[in-house]
């Protein structure tokens, strides 16, 4: 049922030029021209949250080389940070950002590393926050999207002069471990948490064509 409302609403959204450059090869829905920009971003047959996929004020990014996609807020700028595959951030509030890292792995399922809270705790301490920052895991959970297990979790990282409140999603596919992390200064968390939640929920890993 949700898919129908998505198609009806789609013509009311103005697709901006970055969206229209997205490849539409994954599903042959080009005939429905107004949704072509989203074809490689989301499987229209899946029942996962169309609300997130069709949010106004967000732009889709698809990395066909590494096989993933997500939404980021309109107005955030892409920046290059060593060790990160993709990073977008707010130019005024630099703590508001989203980053994706990709590591090779011989595991086939994120659950092979352990339960969500254990995996999240290890990643936060070793990868997602500098050793000098004091970290706290707030919540970690598992969900399945298109038959693939994702762990999502919420945490805070405290530095001497600020505290960053963050959300992450991790998943394994294509022989890689993917992590997406987005966050904001704790003082702005109440204003932007829904926006950050949309980013995390939009994160999808696609299967490479064998």
Automatic annotation (TrEMBL):
Gene3D superfamilies: Mog1/PsbP, alpha/beta/alpha sandwich. GO terms for biological process: photosynthesis. One of its GO terms (molecular function) is calcium ion binding. SUPFAM superfamilies: Mog1p/PsbP-like. Residues 56-205 form the PsbP C-terminal domain. One of its GO terms (cellular component) is photosystem II oxygen evolving complex. InterPro entries: Mog1/PsbP_a/b/a-sand (IPR016123), PsbP_C (IPR002683). This is PsbP C-terminal domain-containing protein.
